[in-house]
Design brief:
- With 528 residues, the chain is of the alpha+beta class.
- It folds into 4 domains: 173 residues, no CATH class; 55 residues, no CATH class; 138 residues, Beta Barrel (L,D-transpeptidase catalytic domain-like), CATH 2.40.440; 58 residues, no CATH class.
- It has an 8-stranded mixed barrel with strand order 1-2-3-12-10-9-4-13.
- α9 runs antiparallel to α13.
- The relative contact order is 0.11.
């Protein structure tokens, strides 16, 4: 006896043939951030016609309101379900803990009540992929924070990720591997976990007032002692600034990149009291976000600059070989944030004055006395490829686009004796400077964007540790005379970064000032 199709089956078949435009609109993928349950996908209510196989249901779900990666993934597996009850329960539990990654669990919550098994399967896959993108690349775009934050976050290969996830016996491990493994990221995530798991007591502020130093006596000294964890010898007055407190203040200042003079002035106070009224988690989350933008592997030998800390490090095989002070871009001329490679070193460099500096800071003085101005500062005017008498030119703004102003090598050269080049569109680099006195300042956002290194030859010694032909001492012996280019045998990665929170080796959370306001902007972009 020939089987006669039911009307319901014919309608369903026609819907499949007609394609997405005629298909039934599925249940929305996300629900409000409430009602998290532990029920498995198989426990979800059934809402599809009983005569449609699960593959046909998933085919229909995968044609409406899904990402291309998810649609391709299900098509490649002939629309078989992705999730077993056990795997789904494990992944749901992991997504529910997303707050400990700095994320909002509501972004990955998929309701189970009222969904068919097919809808729940596809929706969970979409939620997992969304989490994976965030874990790999972060949620905000670097360029949305600043146009000179041109770092390129690592990108998730979505097809490979979903295929790997489908094969995995323990999919949670696949998700966990997406996060950065840099020690500082892991340490910040641990601090976030502590902040989320404990009640936060706001410590007292030292507060503004007279500078505190050895011998000072007032109530604020007792607060300072409490903040630094300084003990009070029996019988001593806690409001007296004694030798033991002086030593702790100096240690604190040194750890924050300040001059360790033992004097609690405005800069030390600003760091001590900064952020006491802030959400303890916001700064941790925004710094974790910026770690996600960096390359997952820095390489065995690299340079890293942390702008808010005014510090540079040379790292080899996970050990710091050099750490020193730097001067970074002023607020009006911020140092760009990006990664590149140091390709060559220039000894006895010329300084080619940028047009912006020549126009804003030099043109008026040049117009008054061109020859005198150039002679006093060791400048040269280069026109049509040759050095010319600056007094022979008519100096106006248009002329600055035709004439190159450069400063000859020498003791007064703005770049000092050496510069470390990683050619980039921002035209910034690391270099020496003749104004060594500026490194004694606590706030060192003073340059036009480049990074000035305190002791360039010690830095070069660590930088060139893997180079068979070049060394810091060798470069020092080249100082004086004409400009020299030294190509590196191997390019060395350099990362210009922006972190206002670090975890010290002893587990202390160290905070640095938000010199360019990027922490605040990142938090706004993340909605925290």
């Amino acid at each position: 006896m020939r089987h006669t199709p039911t009307i319901a089956a014919l309608i369903a078949a026609l819907a499949l043939v007609a394609g997405p435009a005629q298909a039934e609109v599925p249940v929305p993928r996300l629900a409000p951030a409430s009602g998290l349950t532990e029920a498995s996908i198989d426990g979800a209510a059934t809402a599809t016609a009983p005569d449609l196989a699960i593959e046909d249901e998933i085919r229909r779900e995968a044609t409406v309101d899904v990402s291309l990666a998810v649609a391709d993934f299900y098509a490649a597996r002939d629309y078989r379900p992705m999730w077993t009850p056990q795997r789904a329960a494990a992944v749901r539990a992991r997504l529910a803990e997303a707050a400990y990654d700095g994320f909002d669990p509501a972004e990955y919550f998929v309701p189970q009540e009222g969904q068919s098994r097919a809808s729940a399967d596809v929706s969970l896959t979409e939620a997992v992929l969304r989490y994976a993108r965030h874990a790999m690349s972060g949620r905000a775009k670097p360029l949305s924070i600043s146009p000179i934050m041109t770092i390129e976050p690592p990108r998730l290969d979505e097809g490979r990720f979903l295929a790997r996830l489908a094969r995995a016996e323990k999919p949670v491990k696949v998700l966990d591997r997406l996060h950065p493994t840099h020690p500082q990221f892991l340490a910040l995530r641990a601090k976030l976990g502590e902040a989320l798991g404990t009640h936060r007591e706001v410590p007292p502020a030292v507060g503004n007032g007279n500078m505190l130093r050895l011998g000072s006596q007032e109530a604020r000294v007792a607060v300072l002692r409490s903040r630094l964890g300084a003990t009070v010898p029996r019988g001593s007055d806690p409001t007296v600034f004694d030798d033991s407190l002086d030593a702790m203040v100096r240690d604190f200042q040194e750890s924050r990149g300040l001059r360790p003079d033992g004097i609690v002035g405005p800069q030390t106070l600003a760091i001590l009291d900064e952020g006491l009224d802030e959400d303890a988690t916001a700064a941790l989350i925004s710094n974790m976000e910026r770690w996600r933008w960096l390359p997952r592997q820095f390489g065995p030998h690299y340079v890293i600059v942390n702008v808010p800390a005014y510090r540079v490090r040379v790292v080899s095989d996970d050990a710091t070989r050099y750490e020193g002070r730097v001067i970074v871009g002023a607020v009006g001329h911020p140092t760009p944030i990006f990664s590149d490679e140091i390709e060559h070193i220039v000894v006895n460099p010329y300084w080619n004055v940028p047009i912006s500096i020549a126009s804003k800071e030099m043109l008026g003085s040049i117009q008054r006395n061109p020859r005198g101005y150039f002679a006093r500062r060791g400048y040269e005017a280069v026109y049509n490829g040759r050095v010319v008498d600056p007094g022979s030119l008519s100096w106006h703004r248009g002329m600055l686009h035709k004439v190159r102003i450069r400063q000859k090598p020498g003791n007064s050269n703005a770049l000092g004796a050496v510069k470390f080049m990683f050619p980039n569109k921002h035209a910034v680099y690391l270099h020496d400077t003749p104004t060594k006195n500026l490194f004694s300042r606590d706030q060192r956002a003073l340059s036009h964007g480049c990074v000035r290194v305190d002791d360039p030859f010690v830095f070069a010694e660590a930088l060139l540790a893997t180079d068979d032909k070049l060394s810091g001492e060798g470069i020092r012996r080249m100082v004086g005379g004409s400009q020299r280019y030294l190509n590196l045998a191997r390019h060395i990665p350099v990362h210009l970064t922006y972190f206002t929170r670090e975890v010290a080796p002893d587990g202390r959370l160290v905070r640095f000032g938000d010199v360019y306001g990027y922490d605040r902007r990142t938090q706004k972009a993340l909605g925290i």
